[in-house]
């Protein structure tokens, strides 16, 4: 146990995760801002700059939830090329409630109708609806730590990417600096569950989120998993954001 929270057995992890995101879907975007003080926006913007999308880039955004990465991606293409008509985004997520919020946001942003962003239900561990070698860029933001079999997720990413395509994962990391680490742990285990309770009336879901961050492999270990799946990395394979509170891991399928 850690702060009274029991570790989730693998056999029920998937149903717990779907319950958590079913609970938080409506408050999800607000809570991200509240919990991170808006910093998640900077991390996501940085992810898009790292992708540096081309005019016709196709993106598969897995665990794409309410569309945060997808809309930023299309906006970046539009700003850079004057139109996002050539680009496309396919959002896959396991949770229908998150997808529904995403579809509504798409409509509100003017991506409704015959648009180049689609939302569909699917599991990151087996993307059976996505053909081999079919996408330019694969993103998974704050999603992979919720998956039961991380190695299967990376393998699927490798399969669906075209040769030359890039895998990018934005995820919470582990903080090495001891001073920052102790501040961060206090914040995670005390402040976040309390905010979950007061803002979303749901302490348990946010306690789960904190626990899932703590259990995820640290950056060097995760980078090795990506390398072992066949990806070619630049340098050590990741970039720390905000002292390693988050990190962007990436690799090319060459
Ligand atoms: N990418 C979005 C963002 O950055 O705002 C959403 C991140 S949210 C923290 C995590 C998402 O992962 C949830 O929408 C959840 O439903 C989804 N998820 C969890 N397990 C999954 C799986 N095995 N396959 C696909 N999506 C999954």
Give your account of this protein's structure.
This protein has 254 residues and is an alpha/beta fold. It has one domain: Vaccinia Virus protein VP39 (Rossmann fold, 3-Layer(aba) Sandwich), CATH 3.40.50.150. It is built from 9 helices and 7 strands, in the order H-H-H-E-H-E-H-E-E-H-E-H-H-H-E-E. The protein has a 7-stranded mixed sheet, sandwiched between helices. Helix 6 links the parallel strand 4 (135-141) and strand 5. Helix 7 runs antiparallel to helix 8 (203-215). The longest helix is centred in the C-terminal third of the chain and has 23 residues, at 178-200. Bound molecules: S-adenosylmethionine. S-adenosylmethionine is lined by residues 17, 21, 62-65, 68-69, 93-95, 98, 123-125, 141-143, 146-147. Residues 17, 21, 62-65, 68-69, 93-95, 98, 123-125, 141-143, 146-147 line the site of S-adenosylmethionine (SAM).
Keywords:
single chain, 254 residues, alpha/beta, Rossmann fold, 7-stranded mixed sheet, 9 helices, globular, binds S-adenosylmethionine
Mean pLDDT rating? 92
Tell me which CATH architecture applies here. Answer: 3-Layer(aba) Sandwich
Rg measurement, Å: 17 Å
Stretches where pLDDT falls below 50 for ≥5 residues? 1-5
Describe the global form.
Answer: globular
Family: Belongs to the class I-like SAM-binding methyltransferase superfamily. MenG/UbiE family.
Organism: Blyttiomyces helicus
Subunit structure: Component of a multi-subunit COQ enzyme complex, composed of at least COQ3, COQ4, COQ5, COQ6, COQ7 and COQ9. Interacts with PYURF; the interaction is direct, stabilizes COQ5 protein and associates PYURF with COQ enzyme complex.
Pathway: Cofactor biosynthesis; ubiquinone biosynthesis
């Amino acid at each position: 146990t850690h702060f009274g929270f029991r570790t989730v057995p693998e056999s029920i992890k998937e149903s717990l995760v779907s319950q958590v995101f079913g609970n938080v879907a409506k408050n999800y975007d607000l809570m991200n801002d509240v919990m991170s003080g808006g910093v998640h926006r900077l991390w996501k913007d940085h992810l898009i700059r790292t992708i540096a999308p081309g005019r016709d880039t196709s993106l598969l955004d897995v665990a794409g939830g309410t569309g945060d990465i997808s809309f930023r991606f299309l906006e970046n293409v539009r700003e850079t090329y004057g139109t996002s008509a050539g680009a496309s985004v396919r959002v896959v997520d396991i949770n229908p409630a998150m997808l529904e919020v995403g579809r509504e946001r798409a409509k509100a942003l003017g991506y409704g109708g015959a648009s180049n962003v689609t939302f569909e239900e699917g599991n990151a561990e087996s993307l059976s609806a996505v053909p081999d070698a079919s996408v330019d860029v694969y993103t998974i933001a704050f999603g992979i730590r919720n998956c039961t079999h991380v190695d299967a997720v990376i393998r699927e990413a490798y399969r669906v990417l075209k040769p030359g395509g890039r895998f990018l994962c934005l995820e919470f990391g582990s903080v090495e600096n001891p001073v920052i680490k102790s501040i961060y742990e206090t914040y995670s285990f005390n402040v976040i569950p309390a905010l979950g309770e007061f803002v979303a009336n749901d302490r348990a879901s946010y306690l789960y989120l904190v626990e899932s961050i703590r259990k995820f492999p640290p950056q060097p270990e995760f980078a090795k998993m990506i390398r072992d799946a066949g990806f070619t990395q630049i340098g050590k394979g990741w970039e720390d954001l905000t002292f390693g509170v988050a990190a962007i891991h990436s690799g090319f399928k060459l």
